[in-house]
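User: Teach me something about this protein's shape.
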Amino acid sequence: MKKHKSDPSSWGDATKLVRGGLDRSGHGETSEALYLNSGFVYDEPETAERRFSGEDSGYVYGRYGNPTVSMFEERLALLEGAESCYGLASGMAAVFGALACQLRAGDHLVSSKALFGSCYQIVTSILPRFGIRTTLVDGSDLKAWKEAITADTKCVFLETPSNPTLEVIDLEAVCSIAKAKGANVVVDNIFATPILQRPLSYGADVIVYSGTKHMDGQGRVLGGAIMSTRAFKDELLKPFLRHTGPSISPFNAWVLLKGLETLKLRVEAQSHAAQQIAEVLSATRGVSRVIYPHLDSHPQAALSRKQMRLGGTMVTFEVEGGKAKAFDVLRHLGIIDISNNLGDAKSLMTHPASTTHRNIGAEARAMMGISDGMLRLSVGLEDTDDLIADLTQALAA
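Assistant: First, the predicted structure itself:
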């Protein structure tokens, strides 16, 4: 007997993450099938012709699409509430693809200045090589956004919360400013994940993710995704990405697909633990500053609570004594690993000034507020008391 078909859009997030986009083959497998093939065959030459012309929606080549990849895309789009999703080989492929597909020589891009190191390089170095003008603004200053976004602005890009300073930007206000000038808004929502924040509901046009982080959640594979309208995907993304080739492998898409099943459980548990850790660090000797979106001390705490259900899985803090003390803390960690990755089941810590943001230079780091004593902690799924004890002994060592 066939199961009754219900409307997936009416499901809760947990159900969407487990069953969204499920497309079983005739074998009736429980787990989603992994299609490890690069090409497809056709029963007739006319079938091939129809598929290449777009009359037939079937698959033609691994770089264009794959059944496993499609399940990943459909599940994530369903969760986000987006019309479409495009799976990619990495988060940075998603960032570059979302921007480059819609920009050309002479266009103007406005971006928040608090960015991940590679995003900063794309905005300030790579895109300008192709004649794209870029302007950086203080993301928390709405007046700066109003002055920078003009009738010539084609696109706006921002991270919120930002990496690693956890700056929170008013999505509704910035999207409104951009819309008044006819500019598309691209939001990097990697730190918040779709579990805690939905930028589309505030007026954003395109959302980018690194699936490598929370979606995988166990440090196994690279992957990325772009959420958009169906028109944006069909008219801009497909022509650009199909011919430039940053496609995600079916295996990586399958791993991310399985990771999505537990995304809500992991992000919520990690966020609750991060809140506790941030509160403890705020009262710990030797810690000069703690940055966490839902702490009362955060400059945009009220805004963060409005936009994000929880404060997220990341805690950034500064230690007295600069780089030497920061390295000392890292050296004395017993449970938490030193790693520049994040969103993992294992707690990870890095020193941004010497790793993720090293190549942008001291001047850019100072502009972003990244000091030599700053440490970024990605809170995992270990016992929270164990993590607090580890941090406490490392800071006291």
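Now, about its shape. The chain has two domains: 10-260, 264-396. The CA atoms of residues 286 and 396 lie 8 Å apart. If you'd like, I can walk through any region in more detail.
User: That's plenty for now, thanks!
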